[in-house]
Amino acid sequence: MLEMLEHFNQLLSFGNMAVLLLGSVAGIFFGAMPGLSPTMAVALLVPFTFYMQPATGLILLGCVYTSAVAGGAISAVLINIPGAPASIATMLDGNPMAKQGRAQEALYIAFFASLLGGLAGVLALIFLTPPLAAFAMKFGPSELFWISVFGISIIAGLSSGALLKGLFGGALGMMISTIGYSPMFGEPRFVFHDVLLSGIAIVPALIGLFAVPQVLTLVEELYIVATKADYRPRPGLIASTVAMFLRWKRTVTLGSLLGITIGIIPGAGGQVAGLITYDQVKKLSKDPCSFGKGNPEGISASETANSATVGAALIPLLTLGIPGSPTAAVLLGGLLIHGLFPGPDLFTKYADVTYTFIGGMFIAQFIMCGMGILFSRYSQAVMNIPNLIMFPAVTILAVIGTYCVQNSMDDVVIMFVLGLLMYLGQKLGFPSAPVVLGIILGPIAEENFLRGMMIAQTDVGAFSYFFTGGLNLLLIALSAISLLWGVIGDLQYRRRMKYAHPAGAAQLSST
Q: Own/partner pairs for 281-289, CB < 8 Å, 24+ apart?
């Protein structure tokens, strides 16, 4: 911290502050656009940093990264489409709040949570870099496999009232993630059409599973004169939001800790942190049935965790050269083009650049929050756009966002096909979140299981490799507890619904 203060004057220069402001606005814009992920935002800006001073260029990439993760909450809340994979859990309660006329409140909560989680991640980057980097190195293929299993186990918690359908959706998502060439052996799998040769990338799948069903729902209601959500401006909304966070100490603490822990583990990312934290907060809540229906604490849990992963993902990057997320991997390119190599030299020989960059990340959290709250004041205008205008606008954004991932029309076709299937699935009561979770965690589980098996065959054997060791046993226990807790929660949910709504109990019994 003292080293960062020594370079504070350099951080507060006009050029760096201008970059912080413009980068935060650009990051929120990128995050709010479905398909334009934080990784893509940083990748697009890396070439421009070549003409900047190293510290200024890294500040630009860092503030765009953190703002894009937070900005994904805007489209998740307003149009029920996560702007980035990290915002999937935010959508579960954010959009119901928006439909209740509380869109501005939901976005205030999202950006305040992003501020607190982002600050926690940056403070971990400042104070805990050496020990946390060493901790990250303890996660080999077996531990990463069990991390993915733990993530998959939360499907039970995300599917209250539809447990079997949720588990089926998760299994289907994992199967979809195997389409394409095997990452280990290079063999094609389930490739029954040339469109599938490159597999199914997460962004086209994400947009298809969330955006296309939303568009088709808008088309269904195109000529229905629907009553708009009653919007009543609430004076003192900032003060009331701060008061809520003072009551949510456990949620903020849990989200920050899980976000930091998952952030430093290579390959997990903000989407896993957000979903796991959302699930854990829901399980610890006194009213778990309110989650998914507009509970603001669900937004807080998701946004705190996914923003905490931003700073945490840079810990193994700066110390070991191992990026904790895909966006951090792109940031590594930003370091290298300026002749900066991860390791001890960053904190000694290039300390002025490194600590100016970290200080910029710290200040960027406040600018991001301020700009997000400013934009949130106009959120209700989006909610009142007629469906006749909204559905073509969302469709255009979905197509552009999908095409830009790999400049491929194949991705656009995949997006529409997955979206149509998900639309039909929702009509039958299948939730979309478990399918997306399966697509995200499937490759992590598969790759690390295969790597673990290759190591085990040349050493201690598969059973000993995967089922011994403190971290393995801890993760196995957490997975079992999470799954059991989810099943118990589902049974309790059904019992409550039975007594509260006897007419709906028959529908739940069919799932």
A: 281/251, 281/254, 281/255, 282/157, 282/489, 283/157, 283/482, 283/485, 283/486, 283/489, 284/250, 284/254, 288/160, 288/489, 288/492, 288/493, 289/160, 289/493, 289/496
